[in-house]
Amino acid sequence: MVKACLFDLDGVIVDTAKYHYLAWRRLANELGFEFTEEDNERLKGVSRMKSLEILLEIGGVSFDEETKEAMAAKKNAWYVEYISKMDSSEVLPGVIDFLTSLRENGIKISLGSVSKNAMIILKNTDVDKYFDAVIDGTKITHAKPDPEVFLKGAEELGVDPKECVVFEDAQAGIEAAINAGMHSVGVGSPEILGKADFVISSFNEMSLNRLKF
């Protein structure tokens, strides 16, 4: 019996990828070169500093470490500026209905995200009220596929990992769920998320009946 559902944030509850892209493009423009959406594909699932290295490589420019740290901080400040303007209209389809049904049926809910800006997004989109626990980048030391973010969520909820289901849009996230000994549901492409128990294209396809493993 499933007792808890754990959710990644970006690409599952909301889509913040566009704001990362706008911030990186703004930095590239400031440095005097173009950064396209195709270029941005190379940054998905990559750390902030590694993303910066890729961007600088695309622009054919290089800087010392101190300057790069300042650039990464500037990019993050712009990203926070963008997400601070988010509202409930940006919650992905079917999410609110599913979260509501979980709460009505006594199933606990946790966030499991490596984002350090998770609370800003949850509050601005008005979904923070659905979560019993929030484990984000400020509370963990290991990135996915390490299971830390999900194991901490289960611990905070007081639920055994094998009674948890993780919802993820990234391969590393599905692997983190498997490493935690949890069930997993992929949100997105079956080709990428094939290790999940099953894959949905959106939460409009999700119901409590599908939580029986």
From TrEMBL:
EC numbers: 5.4.2.6
The protein's enzyme class: isomerase
CDD domains: HAD_BPGM (cd02598)
GO molecular function list: beta-phosphoglucomutase activity
Coiled-coil regions listed in the entry: none
UniProt keyword annotations, A-Z: Isomerase
PANTHER family referenced in this protein's UniProt entry, alphabetically: FRUCTOSE-1-PHOSPHATE PHOSPHATASE (PTHR43481), GLYCEROL-1-PHOSPHATE PHOSPHOHYDROLASE 1-RELATED (PTHR43481:SF4)
InterPro entries cross-referenced by the UniProt entry: B-phosphoglucomutase_hydrolase (IPR010976), Beta-PGM (IPR010972), HAD-like_sf (IPR036412), HAD-like_SPP (IPR051806), HAD-SF_hydro_IA (IPR006439), HAD_sf (IPR023214), PGP-like_dom2 (IPR023198)
Keyword set includes Isomerase: yes
Organism from which the protein derives: Clostridium rhizosphaerae
Family to which the UniProt record says this protein belongs: Belongs to the HAD-like hydrolase superfamily. CbbY/CbbZ/Gph/YieH family.
Pfam families: Hydrolase
Protein name, as recorded: Beta-phosphoglucomutase
